[in-house]
Every structure is written in C-alpha cells, then in structure tokens.
Amino acid sequence: MSEFAPFGGSDEEYASVRKHQAEVEADPDNFESWENYIKSSETLDGGLNRNSSPQALATFREAYDRFLHKFPLLFGYWKKYADMEFNIAGPESAEMVYERGCACITNSVDLWTDYCSFKMETTHDPQIVRDLFERGASLVGLDFLAHPFWDKYIEYEERQEAQDRIYAIHARVIRIPMHQYARYYERFRNLAHTRPLSEVVPADVLSRFQAEVEAESAAQGGGARPELEIERDIRAKIDAMYYEVFTATQQEVSKRWTYESEIKRPYFHVTELEHSQLNNWRKYLDFEEAEGDFDRAVSLYERCLVTCAFYDEFWFRYARWMAAQDGKDEETRHIYIRASIFVPISRPGIRMQWAYLEESCGRIDVAIDIHAAILMKLPDCVEVVVSWAHLQRRQNGLEAAVQVYRDQIDAPTVDLYTKAALVAEWAQLLWKVKGSAEDARAVFLKNSQWYGDSLVFWEKWFAFELDQSATGEEEKDTAERIKSVFDEFRTKSKLSGSVKQELARVYMNYLVQRGGKDAMTIFLEVDRDMFGPASISKSTIASKENGTTGGELDEASRRKAEARLFAFYETHTEPNTAAQGPADFN
What sections of the protein cross the membrane (predicted)? Predict the structure, then answer.
C-alpha cells in the first residue's frame, strides 16, 4: 500500500501528480522524480493560492513535507515552501516552515538571512526581530561567507535608526574572518569617529588611553591642552588599536582563503563531489582544529557536513573530534543521530558506532534498538547481527548471544547465505567463548549440507580446524579432520575454481608447515587436483558423480556465496589524496 496520502479529486486533475508519485515510490533516491513530483503539486488548481481547494493544498503540503524529509539540507526549497505558505495561509504558516527549515539546516547563511528578512517585513516588535537575528548570529555568524546575514542585520538596525546598535554590530564583525571583512572595517572606522568615546571602547580601555595621553602631555611640558586635542589623541590611539584588530583579522582571512578559494560547491546536492573537494575539506578541518578555537572548528564541521552529508568519513571524524573535547558526550551523541539521517542505511557503520557509544554510556536498550532498527531495513546484514550477538554476550552472557543467532537463522526474511555466515559465527562463539571445540564442530557438521555453497562457512570451519592445537596422536586426528573438511569442500561445493584454489593454498601451507611424514603425498595430490588441467581433476570427476556440475551458481548467487565479511571499522583506511574524479559515496 502506498505510504502517500490519497489525493482526492478527479484522476484527470491529478494525473501528473499520481504519475510522479509512482515514480518516487518506485525509486525514492531519484532526485529528478522528486523534483517533478514537487512541480506537479505546485500547479494544481491552475496555481495555488488562498482560494485553492483543500485537496490541492493538502497534496502540495504532503509533497513538500515528504521531499524535505528526504532532503532536509536543500535550503532553497525551504525558502520556496515558506513563500508559498505565506501566499496561501499567511505569515504564521510561513514562519513555521522557516523554523522547521532552520532546525534542519542550522548553519545555512541563506536560509537564516531569508528568515530574518521575512521577520523584518512581518513583525513590528523590534525585540522579536533582534532576538531572531541573534539566534541566527550564534549559528551562522562565524561563517566565512556570512556577509549577507550581517548586511541584513545592519540594514534592519539602520531602518530602526539605532546608531549605537549599528556600531556594536560592526565592532563584532570586524573580528570575524570573513570574505568581505575589509568593507566592514572601513565602515566601522567612519562610525567610530562619530560616536562618543564612551561608546567606542570599554571604560577600562578608555581610562588607560586617557592616562597615556596625559602622561605624554606632561612629558612634553607646557600647560593644559584643549579638550579637543586630548580627544583627538585618544581617538588616534583607539584607531591604532582597532587597526591591529583589522590586521589580525586580515591575517586570519588570508590563512583561510587557501582553503575557501578551493570550495567549488558550498551547498548540499545529491551528486558526488570531486576527490579534490574532499581533500580540501580534510585539509581545512586539519587547519581549523590546529588553530584550537572550538567554536570556529564546530562552525567549519557544520559547513562541511552540509556539502559532504553523504560521506560518512566526515561524520566519523566530527564525532571522534567532538568526543575528544571535555564534557561533550551529548554533542557527540547528536552527531551520530544526525549522521543516521543522512548516511544511507546501506552503510550501517555510523549507526553501529552510535550503538557502541550508547552501550559505553550504559544505555543498553538504546544500543539494542539501534541494531534492531538497522536489521528491519537490512535483514541480511551479517555484520549487524554479529555485532548484536556480541553486544548480548558482553551484557547478558553466551546464551543471550546464541539466541540472537538462532532468531536470525530461523527468520524467514533472512537469506540462505546470510544464515550460512551466522551459523559459522555461532560455531566460532561456542569455540572461542564457551571453549568447546566439540560443540563448535557439531554445529559445522550438522549444517554443512545446507550451507555448502558459502565461502564464509567453509573458511570459518577450515580456520577452526587449523587452529586446534594438538601433539602426538592427537595431531593425526586433527590432520584427518582438516583433510576431511577440505575434501568435502572441494568436491561438494559449487563455489568457483578460483575460490577453491584460495582455500587449497591455505591447506597446502598447512601441509608444508605442520604436516606429518606423508604430508607431501597429499600436497602433490592437492596440487594436481586444484591447479592441474581439468582432465586430471578429481574434484571435477567427483562433481560429475555427485551431479553438481550442472548446478553451478548463477551470478547473483555466486556474488553472495563468495562475499567476504568485514566489520565497518576494518575498512577504515587513509584517504587516497591522489585520487581524481568523482568520489563515490561508498
């Protein structure tokens, strides 16, 4: 059943909407389908307005709400949605959209500027408008490209003819490394010359400058000086002080321009970024972290994670950096929560890291719920099942872990090859945690007839037998068991020849390094069988006798059967800084 609400109205009137809705349902990740869906909803009733039908308005809002739930970082659509709500239902509805948008993309200079501009035109209470500007300043004020926001704030105070506030805003801005820092300083200098000394600098600084001027006058001798001359000298000192602020800001801008000039796409989009862009963000983050200013580092991370929202590398980095700061546990948790919104669930690593954080904080139920939520979407994700089982092992013991495996193996939604891997992990658990090689071997033996086409199953079983330590007569038994497993694998499994050769090499290595007196006889037999021509291969002959030759795996099954399993943290590597072209999200 469709998750979209029924439209109402005639089929002819809503034919276009229904068509694009179906396309979105068929492929929720197709951005073009979403755009078409949005456009078709906007044109209902010949163009939406206050007099449009309730069905048309409901359809329009449904489309926008679902689109922005899927792509919350597209600030332009929040602005468009708010504008349409203003035309349809008035300022209160538009304000609710702006609030939702600014909550979803808190560091959007454009959206905050638009929201404040909207508030300037629709609210007559200056304090409400100023409070909104201050909210925006706390979130986007440090952005290198924040000048549109600050310009709008200054424009508002100019409308209010609040000269003291205009000066105060400029005094804040000249300390922020921004793209257009110089023009703010020039305006600030001009304003400073028109303001009383008591407003230009703090009282303690003014007292210090007054004392310095008096001391300099006394040193030069002469009588009392006119007040205007004294004020002129004090203003000269103030001007010199603020020029030092300007030069310091200029230096900070220059240091950041190296990275800012390389940012080609400072906004979110569903398409991939170039490798060079990712490298630039990495270097920029390295720089800002080294500078040691927490607020500026957070501001840059937030900017980066709008542009790079689909790259979990940067979410991992942000969470690790935040976790290293004192007293930032809750902030770290929020990073993982947000990452789970943007990083596709097909890459569950960031969600699992979140679960590990919750477990480390004693929130075991939350950690379990995160695992369960992932498996609702990815029932065949072995990595998550194994992680869940070991979570239960750590917290509730071996039987709880085994129960996780049993539940997943018995589930009808779980794939055959997934079950094979889980059986192998179950056996590993019995061996390494319970310490019972007999119980582990029994699991392998019991299930070999069902999961004989799984590479993971055979590799785990073979590794298990190889790792059994034995001496004397026991070593002979171990050798026989290893040979038996290998013979069954090479004659009964439908896995490809190249995969069988990989395991054969492992067995041959065992024969050389741990084999007995007759080991080389077996070695040469395996060598002929696995690496010789098909005409002399016993595996080929045995396969024909067992009737398995004609039952080769199809391509899709073969990929599943021969897939190797890795934990997400095992795939973390240093980025390839020499890579060129689009950077795959995976």
Answer: none
